[in-house]
């Protein structure tokens, strides 16, 4: 599966495309035709969840929650956080991550039970980690 991608229940991948401004597009990639849609499903705007215009959010992974169907996007550079959107593009919430615990959060997925799994690369002498969080 390509980096920054997650499979949706309708046989397509969701992809985050990096942009230079504060908006990122979420695109669908059809697994049958092997083509990416030319128009984004929706755009995420970091002004929805960042405190100031100088802050940055650079997505590094995304996952769809198996029970709620919400899209969770993790960022590893700039503000380390998880942002949540409905598949209709409506912003739901943002959760800041502890920079000491999540050195460089790169991957996010959910187990079928709803448990959140985050992978964080090692950096500056700190080990890489895979952390699992209860869905409660």
Strand share of the residues? over 45%
Order of helices and strands: EEEEEEEEEEEE
Overall mean pLDDT stands at 82
Question: Helical stretch count?
Answer: 0
Number of strands: 12
Spans where pLDDT lies below 50 across 5 or more residues: 1-5
Main beta sheet strand tally, sense and closure: 5 strands, antiparallel
Q: How much helix is in the residues?
A: under 10%
Distance between the termini: 28 Å
Overall geometry = globular
Radius of gyration: 15 Å
The helix/strand class is: mainly beta
Characteristic terms for this protein:
mainly beta, single chain, four-stranded antiparallel beta sheet, five-stranded antiparallel beta sheet, disordered N terminus, 136 residues, 51% strand
Question: How does this structure look, described?
Answer:
Residues 1-5 have low confidence and may be disordered. The two termini are 28 Å apart. The protein has a domain at 5-99. It is mostly beta strands and 136 residues long. Strand 1 (5-8) and strand 2 (12-17) form a beta hairpin. Strands 1, 2, 3, 4 and 5 form a five-stranded antiparallel β-sheet that branches. It contains no helices and twelve strands.
Summarize the structure.
The protein has no helices and twelve strands. With 136 residues, the chain is mainly β.
């Amino acid at each position: 599966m390509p980096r920054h991608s997650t499979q949706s229940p309708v046989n397509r991948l969701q992809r985050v495309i990096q942009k230079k401004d504060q908006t990122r597009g979420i695109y669908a990639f059809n697994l049958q035709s092997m083509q990416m849609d030319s128009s984004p499903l929706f755009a995420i705007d970091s002004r929805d969840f960042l405190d100031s215009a100088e802050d940055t959010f650079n997505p590094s992974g995304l996952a769809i929650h198996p029970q709620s169907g919400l899209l969770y996007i993790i960022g590893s550079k700039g503000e380390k956080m998880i942002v949540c959107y409905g598949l209709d593009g409506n912003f739901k919430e943002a959760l800041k991550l502890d920079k000491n615990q999540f050195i460089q959060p790169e991957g996010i997925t959910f187990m079928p039970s709803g448990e959140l799994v985050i992978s964080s690369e090692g950096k500056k002498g700190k080990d890489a980690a895979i952390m699992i969080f209860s869905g409660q």
